[in-house]
Design brief:
By secondary structure, the chain is mainly alpha-helical. It contains 6 helices and 2 strands. It has a two-stranded antiparallel sheet with strand order 1-2.
């Protein structure tokens, strides 16, 4: 049984998350090629790499949530390890495809409810 089936608060959070992903997807659908390649000053990555990173993070975060819900220990994660993985990801997906990335964002996000 999924956590959201037992917990109304978790179900409400899952719905809010799905709505936020849909809002982001709708915003990105209006994104021009130039905007897709614009650098986000906070990370130094393009919009495309940032969206690809967010989409890829869902699987990792879902695993953490499932582990917590099952009472399992969380994997050891360090800030340095996260930074290294993020840097590798930014290089590997510097030219990520617009359509595939947005589809990945939506498909990896849910359904959470």
């Amino acid at each position: 049984m999924a956590v959201t089936e037992r917990n109304p608060e978790a179900r409400a959070l899952a719905r809010r998350f799905e709505e936020a992903v849909q809002t982001l997807g709708a915003l990105l659908e209006r994104c021009s090629a130039e905007q897709w390649r614009t650098i986000c000053p906070e990370e130094g990555w393009t919009v495309g790499v940032t969206v690809h990173h967010v989409a890829g993070s869902f699987r990792f975060i879902s695993g953490l949530i499932e582990a917590l819900a099952a009472g399992n220990p969380l994997p050891e994660v360090t800030a340095a390890g996260i930074d290294e993985g993020n840097a590798r990801h930014a290089v590997k997906f510097a030219d990520c495809d617009y359509v595939e990335t947005i589809e990945g964002l939506r498909s990896r996000s849910g359904p959470a409810v």
